[in-house]
Amino acid sequence: QAQLVESGGGSAQPGGSLRLSCATSGSDFSVYVMGWFRQAPGTQRELVAAITSSNSRNYGDSVRGRFTISRDNAKNTVYLQMNNLKPEDTAVYYCFKTSDYDLTSYDYWGQGTQVFVSS
């Protein structure tokens, strides 16, 4: 059973920045696609960003150009740098790992970290 632990959520003003981190267990970190999805109350789950072990990245349309995903395979950790935050970025952010390179399903995900953007 994989364990993913997110950190770094919190509150920010519009235009501000936050950095999320996700530490995961297991010796097979480099095999998986890592990423983040988010979910706000009453909305569907939305892919935010994903990254393969070779650093191929995929972003959701709403965050492209503002968010940057990165990973440290030596530390089994994935990061999400969020810049120019908007109120519509408010959601619970979940870290995931998946063997599905089409990103149609997630094998494991964490408990989530809340991001709140408001003036």
Set out the fold topology.
Elements: E1 4-7, E2 10-12, E3 18-24, E4 33-39, E5 46-51, E6 57-59, E7 67-72, E8 77-82, E9 91-98, E10 108-109, E11 113-117
Parallel strand pairs: 2-11
Antiparallel strand pairs: 1-3, 3-8, 4-5, 4-9, 5-6, 7-8, 9-10, 9-11
Secondary-structure element order, N to C:
EEEEEEEEEEE
Q: How many strand segments?
A: 11
Stretches with pLDDT under 50, minimum 5 residues: none
Class inferred from helices and paired strands: mainly beta
β-strand percent reads over 45%
Average pLDDT, all residues:
94
* Tally of separate helices: 0
Roughly how many Å is the radius of gyration?
Answer: 13 Å
Shape: globular
Largest sheet: 7 strands, mixed
Helix content: under 10%
What's the N-to-C terminus distance?
Answer: 40 Å
What report would you give on this structure?
- The chain is an all-beta fold and 119 residues long.
- It is 0% helix and 48% strand.
- The chain is built from no helices and 11 strands.
- It has strands at 4-7, 10-12, 18-24, 33-39, 46-51, 57-59, 67-72, 77-82, 91-98, 108-109, 113-117.
- The strands form 2 sheets. Strands 2, 4, 5, 6, 9, 10 and 11 form a 7-stranded mixed beta sheet that branches.
- A hairpin with a 6-residue loop joins β4 (33-39) and β5 (46-51).
- The chain is globular and about 40 Å long.
- It starts with a strand and ends with a strand.
- 31% of the residues are buried.
- The model has no long low-confidence stretch (mean pLDDT 94).
